[in-house]
Design a protein that fits this description.
78 residues; 3-stranded antiparallel sheet; 17% helix; elongated
């Protein structure tokens, strides 16, 4: 990514992302969208998780989801 495509004679587009379905649903993540924009890569992870509001702690919920997001990208040092 990115990949340039021609949709017609005058219409060109640039593919900057891909959508992934996660069959095993680890951490409740069932799909992800990975996009590349200049020097940044973003991962949107979509999950269904049970949240107990009395015990809810945003940080403890984000850690497993961010570990899933890191599975889709890797850092390469220049």
């Amino acid at each position: 990514m990115p990949t340039r495509l021609a949709l017609g004679r005058k219409q060109k587009v640039e593919v900057v992302g891909m959508s992934l379905l996660v069959s095993a649903k680890p951490q409740g993540v069932y799909s992800a969208f990975v996009a590349s924009d200049d020097d940044e890569i973003s991962v949107d992870a979509f999950a269904e998780r049970i949240v107990k509001l009395k015990e809810f702690d945003l940080r403890s919920d984000l850690l497993p989801l961010s570990s899933m997001a890191r599975l889709f990208v890797r850092e390469i040092t220049k």
